[in-house]
Give the backbone structure.
Amino acid sequence: MYKIAVISGDGTGPEVVSEGLKVLDAAGKKFNFKFETMSFDFSGQRYLKTGKLVDEKDIEELKKYSAIYLGAVGDPEVKPGIIETGVLLKLRFALDQYINLRPVKLYNSDYCPLKDKKPEDIDFVVVRENSEGLYKGMGEFKDKGSQNEVATQISYNTRKGVERCIRYAFDYCRKRNKKKKLTLCGKTNVLTFAWDLWERTFYEVAKEYPDITTDYAHVDATTMWFVKNPEWFDVIVTDNMFGDIITDLGAMIQGGMGIAAGGNINPKGVSMFEPIGGSAPKYTGKNVINPLAAICAVGMMLENLGEDKAGKAVENAVIKVAQTKLKSLAAGKMGYSTTQVGDLVVANL
Ligand code: IPM
Ligand code: MN
């Protein structure tokens, strides 16, 4: 019996989560697993009403669950930064979800903004470090507000943190068993402390994986290759900030935020799965948002729970729907409503 903590969140979060749970339910019946859900109301909305974010007691409670399923958090009424650090990053950090796994896979050429790229050309995974780097929140103001103001923001990288991420990426690349190529995406030519550590660690760990081909690309060049030659990539490992940036570009070449999912993974703890787009406030309550990303997150969650067959089946059902039914992956342009898309996935499962 899996215990799933559900954080529907803000905006269109609840709408896409409800389609994800519909698919999870159907998958449970078909593949014979049982689960129960418990709702948690962490959100921008709750913060506006009560001032509450995620606290230590919440974290202890969440540790009792098999996985967390998150819709989206963020409300335009709340000053930027509060919900991000107080809810989303708080969960990632406090639960030590040190990997952010983001598959970039094109299901249908019609959805790709790149000319002449086919599904076989865009199929890679970004392993983003999810607990350190610029996201650590280290830095300070000096003489704030004055003409001499200085603001520093430190990228904090530990050998242990870098190594566990790189090891995860090598293992993942081996298990994925496709091109068996791992690309380190960094900036060794300018950020000479952080990326020196990353590069040394990468090539040291690589010795233990002679079956994996290694490669290196600067982050700026990586964005160029995503557009020009995405077929070069298999698995990419990178730090928190670069991973954040390149996965938004990745989402666009796979068809947009409507299809992009991610997992925040603690291999020995509680992991959290989410569509990577935001709460899309302007579409709230209209039944037009694309739930496929949230449904793909369910597929990832199932694979992570060890329900590989069910996870694959969910992905395949999404592929069928994306290939044969939807006019577009964009909100309001799918030719179907949010709930209809959920039903289509269930029907194809
Ligand atoms: C993401 C998001 C978050 C991030 C924000 C909302 C804090 O952009 O999941 O990529 O920067 O990690
Ligand atoms: Mn992002």
Summary: The first helix runs from residue 13 to 31.
